[in-house]
Automatic annotation (TrEMBL):
Domain of life: Bacteria
Name this protein carries in UniProt: ABC transporter ATP-binding protein
CDD domains: ABC_Mj1267_LivG_branched
Gene3D superfamilies noted in UniProt: P-loop containing nucleotide triphosphate hydrolases (3.40.50.300)
Organism in which the protein naturally occurs: Streptacidiphilus cavernicola
Domain ABC transporter span(s) in chain numbering: 4-235
Amino acid sequence: MASLQVSGVTVAFGGNRALDGVGLTAESGHVTGLIGPNGAGKSTLFDVVSGLRRPSSGRVFLDGRDVTRSRPAGRSRHGLARTFQRLELFGRLSVRDNLLVAAELGPDRRRAAALVDALLTRLGLTAIADSSPDSLPTGVGRLVEVGRALAMRPKVLLLDEPAAGQDGEETERFAALLRALADEGTAVVLVEHDMGLVMSVCDQVYVLDLGKVIAVGPPDLVRHDETVLAAYLGDA
Ligand SMILES: Nc1ncnc2c1ncn2[C@@H]1O[C@H](COP(=O)(O)OP(=O)(O)OP(=O)(O)O)[C@@H](O)[C@H]1O
Ligand SMILES: [Mg+2]
């Protein structure tokens, strides 16, 4: 069953169509990749899905429910969580409290502290749980943001360039985490420029270019698609 379904989404900034009739489906148990050159519209699509930007046309469904008109908080109650390309952590709170704030909004609020401790362990953040996120390298800050999203126990998890700033070993561990989350039933949507990561963890990849989906398929098919190669070369 599709956990997230987007159909016919169009967003215009002035005369520029950032998204033009975009459709996307992300299934529970799968990692769905969303790739494309800079400015393709990936983050804008996440804004539409999470309710931060209203599309001029199109619909968003979570678990079959039309949430196109719901506010962001309503969408999180229906199981949606996301991270941001530009980190948006609470700098005055510790790493642990960043996760705790989210856990207390989620379905597991009664056992929020235990849930947060388990997440800190899972993400390897226990040693820095009392630090301020502002003091951390970007790669680690991104993991904290992933932790905050996971603290809401999402069914659909949108990740906007979560591995940027991670080294090779961190990225490998992160890939294993994404696979595990999918295996637990989460629908993961991954925006990422690290093609190694995308190709190794995604079940299905959507390629956006200039606001349009130009290819969809398993990683191996998409990476050899001539339209896709041309879009990336045009970007170089
Ligand atoms: N708030 C805004 N106002 C005007 N134009 C915008 C705004 N946000 C995005 N855009 C434009 O919309 C298009 C899509 O931008 P978006 O940030 O969604 O791309 P992206 O695929 O996430 O790119 P990147 O890989 O660089 O993060 C771009 O042309 C961008 O300049
Ligand atoms: Mg972006």
